[in-house]
Design a protein that fits this description.
15% strand, 8-stranded mixed sheet, single chain, 50% helix, alpha/beta, 316 residues
């Protein structure tokens, strides 16, 4: 029996691309249906992440025109990870398997066939991995590679070159729902589930309209969330830096005593100034790292809702 597939597409100010994306996905839907790979009850679910343009209006129009399309409207912008999570949690009520993919469809939708094959072979999670970063600019390519390298150094279990294009079974999503973090980092949470998984590779396409909403500021924030959610190494590094500074201080003390007995005490003035600046910088950075973790704990202890769903468009 063919599985009920839901494709979840988080959208933020995507009015320029939605019609083209919907057209391609509907064609893909028809092909999968004719080949018997999915059930007629399968759906395409667009999640509006508090867009300020006509995104939700277009989703509503697509819903009215096509029975295969559903929509979820968040009450305000909560970020890409929360939009994906909202789609997954809503879709799991009806779906056997859910695939999340960005609304601009730069991730090749032809990989969906391979994901379904892996699912039929018994995989609960299938990660979409991009073949290369040829379509990325120099800055994005360097920062992306640096991100994955930094995550590995920090001990975070993430799949390299995987960007939330993945298949998850109903069982895997049910397990994901048991994680109650307010600060979501799905690329780290999903591997934590531990069910049978596999990967498929795809080529990244150029964006056909609009511009990417993933700014450098968001990328940095995403990296910080990932590290502070899954690693305490930054805190351990503070201890390491403290030991290094202590050793340097002991060396400076010995140097000062040596200069004093040689009558060159005044010569240590530049060293004193540099030491003050150095120690001050270390202290400020350490306080900042600790503050980041305290801030995360503060948000988690309040246990506020991740998001609110204002409305859902759904046809039986």
């Amino acid at each position: 029996m063919a599985p009920i597939l839901y494709v979840v597409l988080p959208c933020y100010n995507e009015e320029e691309i939605l019609h083209m994306s919907a057209e391609k996905l509907l064609e893909k839907y028809d092909r999968l249906l004719k080949e018997g790979k999915i059930s007629p009850e399968s759906r395409l679910m667009f999640v509006n992440d508090g867009s300020r343009d006509k995104t939700w209006q277009i989703i509503t129009e697509l819903f009215q025109a096509h029975k295969e399309i559903s929509g979820v409207n968040l009450s305000r912008n909560r970020g890409h990870q929360h939009a994906v999570h909202a789609g997954l949690m809503t879709a799991k009520e009806k779906a056997d398997v859910v695939i999340s993919i960005d609304a601009d469809l730069q991730q090749d939708i032809e990989a969906i066939d391979l994901m379904l094959e892996k699912y039929n072979e018994g995989c609960d999670i299938v990660y979409g991995i991009r073949n290369d970063r040829g379509t990325d600019g120099f800055v994005k390519k360097v920062t992306a590679l640096g991100f994955y390298k930094l995550m590995q150094i920090m001990g975070c279990e993430v799949i390299k070159n995987h960007a939330d294009y993945r298949l998850m079974s109903k069982r895997a999503i049910e397990s994901l729902s048991q994680y109650n973090e307010v600060n979501l980092f799905l690329r780290g949470l999903v591997p934590e589930i531990g069910y049978k998984s596999d990967v498929v590779y795809f080529d990244v396409r150029d964006r056909e309209a609009g511009v990417s909403k993933y700014t450098m500021k968001k990328m940095i924030g995403f990296a910080v969330d990932g590290i502070t959610s899954f690693s305490i190494k930054p805190l351990q590094m503070i201890t390491f830096v403290g030991v290094v500074v202590l050793l340097i201080s002991i060396f400076m003390l010995c140097s000062t005593i040596y200069d004093f007995f040689r009558g060159n005490a005044v010569a240590g003035w530049p060293t004193t100034v540099c030491s003050i600046w150095f120690l001050g910088s270390v202290q400020l950075i350490s306080i900042g790292i600790i503050g980041e973790y305290i801030g995360k704990m503060y948000m988690e202890t309040k246990a506020r809702p991740r998001y609110h769903i204002e409305s859902v468009l759904w046809k039986e």
